[in-house]
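Q: Joint fold for the lines below.
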Amino acid sequence: MSFVFKKQIFGFMDLLRFKKLVPKRREKLEEGSSAPLPMTYRVNETAKILHPGYQSAKLMKIEQNTADTKTYVFETQRPLYFRAGQYLTVGCKVGESFVARPYAISSAPRAGLSKILSVTVKKCGFFSGYLFDNAKVEDIFTIGDPTGEFCYEPIKDSKQVLALAGGSGITPFYSMAQAITDGTEDFSLTILYGAKTEEDIIFRKELDALVSDKIKVVYVLSDEKKEGFEHGFITAELIKKYISGDFTVMMCGPGAMYAFADGQLKEFNLPIKRVKKEANCVGVRDVKDAEYTLTVHIGFETYKVKAQAKETILTAMERAGLQVPSKCRAGGCGFCHSKLVSGKFSIAGADKRRLADTKFGYIHPCCSYPDSDMELIVPKA
Amino acid sequence: MKKYDAVVIGAGNGGLTAAVRLLQGGARVLLVEKHNLPGGFATSFRRGRFEFEASLHELNDFGTADNAGDLRDLFDQLGVTDKIEWMQIPEAYRVISRAEKLDATLPFGVKEFIDKTEQYVPGSRESVTKFFDLAEEVRLAQAYTNSVNGKTDPKVMVSKYGNFVRCGSYSVNEVLDTLKMPKKARDILNAYWCYLGAHCDELSFVHYASMVNRYMKRGASMPKMRSHEISLAFVERIRELGGEVLFNTEAVKILTDAKDGGIAGVVLDDGTQIETRHVVANCAPHLVFGKLMDRVPEEEVRATQARKFAGRGFTMFLGLNKSADELGVENHNYFLYDTMDTAAQYDKMRTIKDNNAQATVCLNRAYPECSPKGTCMMYFTTLYMSDDWGNVKPEDYYKTKNYVANKMIDRFEQDTGAKLRDSIEEISIATPMTYAHYCGHPQGVIYGYESQYWDGLMPRLLMMAEDHKVRGLRFAGGYAMRLSGYSSAYISGDIVGRQTVGDIKREG
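A: Joint structure:
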């Protein structure tokens, strides 16, 4: 060392000071309060309202919206808050298995703070069928964390949002319309809502009541020609009729609607950031029947279960009664992130995994189909 | 009942490292993590066509194969280096501070840094060179300390590392004063302070100099697939070595032995009881002694109560639909401050309203292919030096988040001249609530306990042995003896992993 460091005139004073570091800290630690340490903290309590995790909820009311749609109103155990447009899972025990499915929240975020939450369900599959036929007031369900990015982002989205809704895809927009009305959100929402017939319109009365200078609702009936309604599909012409200038498109509905809307939107030349689509659950795939064996490690246990080539790996595990994590069922949220030990698989749609997941062999069972026998390490639900 | 030699609670950087070390020492290990991913903050997430780095700005003390830092040596020993693709960060930082009208861009390399500072501040060469001389002695003294497992010989310390001992009790600013460093050079040199989260009147010189020196000597590194690649590489390694890793699994209780008060077991969230005599806790002592342990000695309660939480985190992630060139984002790593009076800046960072400081990264400047052609990714981080987010009600949460995000964008545009606002394709924002949710830290703290003068790096290292009071319980991660930050957390895991192996061996 080319120089001698001295802070005080005599270097040994610096040495003495160094020696005092330990006694000084010892003294400070002994001076701490002996009062019990906090069990929780304010930020952590707020985080529990924003991310409540699984909780039980009592079914308070069932409303029949249309012939094949019902709204289920729950009282949750704890308050929760979310962004209009988000979804959560609703589940319960069906037979021996716990079954849960994601549904868009149809109530306003604000109601969640008073522990009121509703989802709107179209009868179309196993669990919705179960709800339709069996759920009754006072029943207890398990609901999950509000999740999803299908929300208005004031920093990047246009102040004008064009909502393209198909069938029960109106649900997140109904929540948004309520949030705009009660002042939670601030943007203008033009909803083009496609339904087969007037009878199939969900929340007709409620939506009409919310119409304001910020909220516009246009019903587009495909199978019916009626006064006061647009007829046909949501075309570029129709879009131009109701909105102009800069706008963000948000779509929620069946895949066929997205394909059609993408074609109609071409002429608007919208950048990627101006178009959002809510993902749909991955369904069955069209392949030849085949059956494989999955070896599944969960916690300290190992299970062998059968899997059909047509169904996702998640479905196979659920059918076998295994308690495994699921949330979006569309490959995007990563909640079912599992380690592949061996075996082959195919992914439905785009691969939404992280780069390192692909490298180290992790898969999302909710959007992956088995192509051979497989061995997996899956976290418990 | 399931029985393990050691249970590691939390798969953060410290916990992952401790688990590998324990396994290498022959222990049977169970690692439990309440989240469904490993890494704690060391992770990534997808939005649209972007995969964002969740927290890592740049990895300190890693270096390259032919200029290896201590951390690379550690990763080599752990057997994870080659599982990860690495890249080097091109330059150290650009610091912009309004009060002083400071705008300086600094390179890596000790000589290069000194030369560049001399250009900005003629006459600074001597004092800045002395800074690095001192810093190098600090590094050598630390290496000696590690080589004797903390049991240093005072005579060796004073004779061989006299300067280290003489400067070892002072703050950054006290030492820079003594070196008579010109104010502007000091302002440039102090830019990294927010990485350690205590201002330069409090922050231990040894701690700061050690970090700056390692950055300059070894440069900084990043894994190509974000820090998630490191975290998964660790899990891979743990499983190779026969360790058990359980995700979505929270440890809800630590059981103690009625006789000696030491560790007897761990209870998991599904009620499973694990028998073990050793726990490595990769979480806050506040949680362990406040919530998890059934019997807590009063001295541990007092010691924990005495400590101060460090910064609570806030990060905004932007996926932009233009390239960094098109946007005018010139650098990889920015520090934007109101003032280089770090104590005054620290004070402003107490509240949501007054905090305008940010440490910002454009990953494409280090790794152009990290996002699709014609796009780039940025993340903007700040710290809150009080529990102000505790005042935010759930119904005001999203508005508050966006308020801060808007301020961050405005500030970046004003200070650098870049234009971001119209090109935002994806945005995601993490707040103290987010960190509290994913990692369980009290108040959303991301920096562990603050490096206050009395609780800085040196006294913590010197007191490692006496801080270990409950038999079988040791702490890894940002709350532990090496304080916070990626490399510190990995090194703390190495230390407690090896110590616990020793504990197990002694028990026979």
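Q: Anything notable?
A: The radius of gyration of chain B is 22 Å. The domain at 2-44+58-86+224-307+451-507 of chain B is CATH 3.50.50.60 (FAD/NAD(P)-binding domain).
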